[in-house]
Structure formats: C-alpha cells, structure tokens
Design goal:
The structure is a homodimer of 296-residue chains. With 296 residues, chain A is of the alpha/beta class. Chain A has 2 domains: 5-162, NAD(P)-binding Rossmann-like Domain (Rossmann fold, 3-Layer(aba) Sandwich); 169-288, N-(1-d-carboxylethyl)-l-norvaline Dehydrogenase, domain 2 (Orthogonal Bundle), CATH 1.10.1040.10. Helices cover 53% and strands 13% of the residues of chain A. Chain A contains 13 helices and 9 strands. The first copy, chain A, has helices spanning 13-24, 53-57, 70-79, 82-85, 100-112, 125-131, 142-153, 166-195, 199-206, 214-225, 234-250, 256-273, 281-288; strands at residues 5-9, 28-32, 48-49, 62-65, 91-94, 116-119, 122-123, 134-139, 156-162. In chain A, the strands form 2 sheets. In chain A, strands 3-2-1-4-5-6 form a 6-stranded parallel sheet, with helices on both faces. A 3-stranded mixed sheet of chain A has the order 7-8-9. In chain A, helix 8 packs across helix 9, helix 8 packs across helix 10 and helix 8 packs across helix 12 (256-273). The radius of gyration of chain A is 21 Å and the shape is elongated. The first copy, chain A, starts with a strand and ends in an 8-residue tail after the last helix.
C-alpha cells in the first residue's frame, strides 16, 4: 500500500486515536486541532502539527475531518478555507457524524473546486478508534472509496453504502436501531421482572435465539446491574434520533416506532438523565410506570 | 444420566423431533398424538404409541406436553385426565407456549394431586427442535429443574428463569423483543433506502456494531431480498404480542413500544399478510407510507 500525505482535522477522543493509527500505518500526517495541546502527543508518532486547518490541508492528498458536529465541520471546511487550500484532485473525507444534507452540500462545493468527497462516519466509540475496529460507513464514488480503502483499513472496517450522503444515512439507521432496541430490551426485561421472573436469568436464556442482539448482551446487562455510567450518553442518543426522524419527515416518511422512542428519550433527558448511559432508558420506563428504579 | 419413563403429548412439527431426540438419548418414551399417524414414525426410534393421553401418562416419571396452545394443553391435562393418571411425585413439564396464568393454575392443580410442575416453553423453531438446539426457558423449583436437566439437554439449552410461570414470561419477553426489533430494522432499512443509500450495504456495514442482532442478520436479509415465506407467520407473532401486552395490562404496566408494534402487526394481518413471515412487517411499513412493495 502506498503511503499518503494526510491532513487530519480534529484530534479529540476519537480523532486522536485515528490519527495515531494513520501515523503507525506509515502515512505522513499533518494534524490540526483547535486546542493545539490535544494534537501535540501525535508528534511522538511522527505527525507534524499544523497551525491552521488550511495549513494541514494545503499539501495533502487526503484530508480527514473528525470534528465534533455538522456546523463545526462546515465552518472549518468552508469559512476557514480547507477546501480552497486543498490541491486539485485531492480527496476530502468527512468522518464526523453530520446531517446528510450538510454532507451533500459540502460534496457539491468540493466538486466545484475540482476535489473529491466521501462522507464516512463511524460507529464503535473510543475502544473501536483505539483498536482500529471502527465500523466505517462510506458514501461516495466507488473509485474514490477504493483509493481510500487502505487508509480506512488502518482505522476499521469500511463499507461503501451508496453515493455521497449514504454514509451519514447508514449512521442514522444504526442509531435508530440502537435507540429502538434499547427501549425494546427495557420493556421486555421490565415485563419479566414485574411478572415475577428473574430478569438476569431471562436475559441469559434469550441469548443465542432470535431475540439476541449486542444491545441485549451489553446494555441488557447494564439494565440488570443498574450500571448507567456512560458509555453513550442519552442526550447524544436523543440528538441522533431527532436527526433521523427529522430526515424521515423531510422525506415524507412515517417511522412510528422511532418517533415514539424519540419521545421516551426526550422524557429521559427532561427528567435530568441526559448524561446517563442510553441504557438508562430502563429507569425512564420504570418512572413512566410509577415504579422505583429498583423495580419496586 | 439415568434413563426415564417419559410420556410425550403432542408429536407435531416440533414435538415429533423433540420426542425422537428423547428416544435417541435412551429414554423410554410413550408418545401420544390426537392424529395417531403423526406419532407412529416414533416407533422406529423405540417409542411406544399410546391410545390416549392418560395412557401415555399413567406409568410415567415425567410427562411432557408439547400441544399447540393453552386451551388444548389445559383440556388434555385436566379434562382428559393426564394429571390424575400420573403417578404421585412424578413431574409434569409443559413446553407449549401458554398463558402465564394457565401455567400457574395447572401447577396448582398438579400440586394438589401430589405432582410437580415446570413450564418450559422453547424458542428456535423446527431447526432447533430437529438439531436439539432449542432455547428452553424453564419456570419452577430448582430441585425439579436439576432433575429434568438431562431431559432438557437432549432437546436444547435449558435455563431456569424463576418460579412457575417464569418460563412463559421469558418466552413473552423473547417474542416482544423479536416483534419490536423486526419493526425497528424495517424502519432503519426503509429510511436508508428512501434516503438514497443501498440498504443491503447498510445492513452489511452495521453488522458487528451496537445495531447488530439476529433479526438484522436473518430478517434484515429477508427484507432486502423480499423473501417473506414463513418462517414465523405474522399472525402468530401478533398473537404472542397480544398475550404479552394483555399480561402487561393485567400487571398495570405500560409498554409503549410493544403496544405500538402490536398495532403494526395487527394492520399487517388485517391487510391479508397474516401467513407471511413476520419480517414482512417491512411491507406493512411501506404500505403505511404509500410506497409500493419495491420501495417505489
């Protein structure tokens, strides 16, 4: 695999690991972060620290953006001149979770400037970023995806899921499944518990059957043990669910289960549990039923 | 493990395999089925065919009931005299999916007659019954469960989930998770599809992450391929979901997602798709949105 000159924007909790892995794979990385101190540990891995986003981009063959959200990403790429600094023909890869429409608009601007664009948000959290096992959902041209494959594979398992915007769509599909399955497992375990069975044994009995899921295994265990340290804070789960149902609305698409689950997470956050792990929806369901968090 | 004298009631699609596996494990099986011809193939495996349910029960140490539903099971056990034919101290194991209250009432009658009782419904369908890999969810006394363990292990993987009735509760929890996850995966794949991504690639990208589930793997594939041959017919899924929400109602428990998903399956069955596989909820969701089954 050929080594590339990569500009990396946003070296926070996730991005720091991702940029390190690219250094370790032998790429020439120019890293930029708003708080410079968070980029500096990358120097030990061979990265150059850039003074501005445009400086990280100007000699790059590939620029990767892992900034925290759509507006930040958009403002750095456009107002702070990343796209206009990039050499003609180079490839912009946005790995932040941003709205589908933002990705499409950025791709259009990139195209006008003679650049190429892939949206490629990830799932797997900090452990996935650290270990290079992220699920990477990419939207763009097949040719560009193939060119970027080795770069993606330094960070995780990439799948091309359609044209530009599709990566973000896949991420929303992922988040909707996560939210709805959390609420579902909470309902099933609460029914078992209130009905008089041992919910821990019920969860155990269900593993390996049609009801099995990563959520039942990991978050079902949290619900039973009452361990709601994040993990994935409920407020972010709610934000993603809102983005998904808003997009569905814009597509004139009714998704009744996802809409209802959004209301449940909204109630959870309103009741002051936005910073709890999303599996804490189990507590919200008990509250809704006038039960104490111990199921009493 | 010691060989036991087992009366087996109901040798249909599931029960036929289960009784055969008990014969193969060396137990002495007396099999009864309303349509005798369906029990006769068991003779080749060493079973004796009984002329009545009571005849299958009268010399048994353990009687297993795998009849099709609660009323049938109840009428055979009580009106047709199975419980009163069973020797004192012997063990009644009901492996049919029946209402929790029916199981508890039967257990009480068994106790009055000096018998013991376990409810132990299964999940895993015909392949699980054939291969002896059923998930077996048992409710009863620990001592009785341990005594029956070797019998259960000839048919699958048993877990004791609580006192009598808990097996049926666990089965309902299982079914609620299955229904709700089916509707959830349908919503996520439809969002991806209508948004312009390739739903097959999106499903692929999500495997291994938090959104992963047996339903995404098996039924998500069916949704993408439009393969709705049952499998698990939607009308049975609806029946189980109704049983679960009715029980929740009796427990004064609100399960909003499960209640909504019951309505979706109800609509699917009303629209004439009760005999389709439960993954056909994907079609119902498209109908709800005025889309053709091809997503057009």
């Amino acid at each position: 695999m050929s080594k590339r000159r990569i500009g990396f924007l946003g070296t926070g909790i996730m991005g720091g690991h991702m940029a390190r892995r690219l250094c370790e794979a032998g790429h020439e990385v120019a890293a930029w972060n708003r708080t410079r101190a968070k980029a500096e540990p990358l120097e030990a891995h061979g990265a150059r620290i850039a003074d501005s986003p445009a400086a990280a981009a100007e000699a790059a063959e590939v620029v990767i953006c892992m900034l925290s959200n759509g507006p930040v990403c958009d403002s750095v790429l456009i107002e702070e001149g990343v796209l206009s600094a990039m050499p003609g023909g180079s490839l912009m890869i946005v790995m932040s979770s941003i709205p589908v429409e933002t990705a499409r608009a950025e791709a259009e601007k990139a195209l006008e400037l003679g650049l190429r664009y892939i949206d490629a948000p990830v799932s797997g959290g900090e452990p996935g970023a650290r270990d290079g096992t992220l699920a990477i959902m990419a939207g763009g041209e097949q040719r560009d995806f193939e060119e970027a494959r080795a770069i993606f594979e330094a960070m995780g398992r990439p799948t091309l899921v359609g044209p530009v915007g599709s990566g973000e769509l896949a991420k929303l599909a992922n988040q909707v499944i996560v939210s709805n399955t959390l609420a579902t497992v909470a309902e099933a375990l609460l029914l078992a518990k209130v009905g008089g069975a041992d919910p821990a044994a019920v969860r155990e009995a269900l593993l390996g059957g049609f009801a099995d899921s990563t959520i039942l295994r990991q978050h079902g265990k949290r619900m039973i043990e009452g361990d709601f340290k994040p993990g994935g804070p409920a407020k972010y789960q709610l934000k993603d669910q809102r983005t998904a149902t808003a997009l569905a609305g814009a597509l004139d698409l009714e998704l009744p289960v996802s809409t209802l689950v959004e209301e449940l997470f909204d109630a959870m956050v309103s009741h002051g549990h936005g910073d709890s792990d999303h599996s804490g929806i189990f507590i919200e369901l008990q509250r809704l039923n006038g039960l104490s968090p111990d199921g009493g």
